[in-house]
Amino acid sequence: MTTHIETISKETLAELLKAGIKEGSVSTSVTNFDELVFENDSFTLLRSADENALNLTALNEGKKGSFSMNQLNPQGLKAAVEKTAEMAAAAKEDSAFAMAPGPKKMNFDHGPKVADREAMRDLITDFVQKTKKQYPEIGLRSVTVKFLEGRTHFENSNGVEANIRKGYYSFSALFNAQKGDNSSSMNYDGLSFTDFNLDLLSEEKFGKVFADTIAHLDAKKYGKNHTGKAIFMPSCWNTFIQFGLAHLSTGQLVAQTSRLEGKRGEKVASPLFHLESRPQDSLFANPNFLTSDGIETENQVIFDQGVLKTYLLDLYGKNKLNEEKVSNFSSRLYMPKGQSSLDEMIKGIDEGILIGRFSGGYPNANGDFSGIAKNSFLIKNGKIEMALSETMISGNVFDVYEKIYATSKEVYENGTCHLPYVASDGITIS
């Protein structure tokens, strides 16, 4: 049975080809969501809505044009076809542009199809009640549960066709800590899931972040300069992973600005740095099945015991750099748990920092970074001594990778990543 979005993709692709385009692709998506919001001690919003997306790509004589819009009406579709053809005609020619080869048909189906509103309400109610009891200093500014069910149809002129249906829930909370006239800055956390059998106040979910936020009611400035060891909390470590992955992307490799150019197969990091992309792993509530080029994602190892195993190239990058295959599957990152507990890692530091979040600009081309360590703690003589306020940290991303000396048994899994705490050296605190 042909669906509404499948009809739109097929008819729009046909119109692209009628307009003189030699190769084209169309992706049509409709996402339905139910959202429940709790603010100021009461439920304030329950709504259902739809979001549409249409993405067109045209190739003509090595020239590429792309256009996106959020309307699926006939007038909008006609205008989108015309605009895409115009952009392709005006583009710079590059023989590396291509469409995914076919024919190939793919079907993906994941997660629940219908929102369980009663379970959504009960999840928020239970979370709010338990938070007030276990963490009375925490002020919940807003708590949101959203159910998203999205359907996508992708089709290109080479016979590649994909139907994707994906359903999952997201949970998020905005909060701070208050005690008398003293209050902390706002903090935020969230996760994705498909099963309501959740312990949201466990340490690996909101328990630790609530305790850390309360500790920052008494945060103090560091007051001196020190270069030494640091432990990255998992969500912060994810930020530093992304800094490095940018150097494996098509953009930086084609522009020859990557620090990792020509390093594939070489040891570029500590043996403790093992990183995989598992885009379709059932471990993750929100999987990723298809690239924007229309190529099915695959599991892959990015770093294996510190050895760089792959670049992260889309179809254009593959062709431009004469590589064998598309490999830009850097979503749903997985890093295995380590051999040390977080407590053991802290005990091994005479003076250093536990970093919760990094706030700063993007590292320079060499990987040098500088910014503010948010939600962070001073470690002294193997113990957490105090919460830190407005503390600067600096260093080099690739030095951080090379100097990893411990990873934790504890892992953070939020439906889109699976990461431990990571300890490294050479971080300057000021």
Can you put this structure into words, describing what you see?
This protein is an alpha+beta fold. The mean pLDDT is 95. The protein folds into 2 domains: 4-216, 2-Layer Sandwich (PmbA/TldD fold); 226-429, no CATH class. Helices cover 23% and strands 40% of the residues. The strands form 2 sheets. Strands 9, 10, 11, 12, 13, 14, 15, 16, 17, 18, 19, 20 and 21 form a 13-stranded mixed β-sheet that branches. Strands 1, 2, 3, 4, 5, 6, 7 and 8 form an 8-stranded mixed β-sheet that branches. The chain is globular. The chain starts with a helix and ends with a strand. A hairpin with a 3-residue loop joins strand 5 (138-156) and strand 6.
What's the quick description here?
With 430 residues, the protein is an alpha+beta fold.
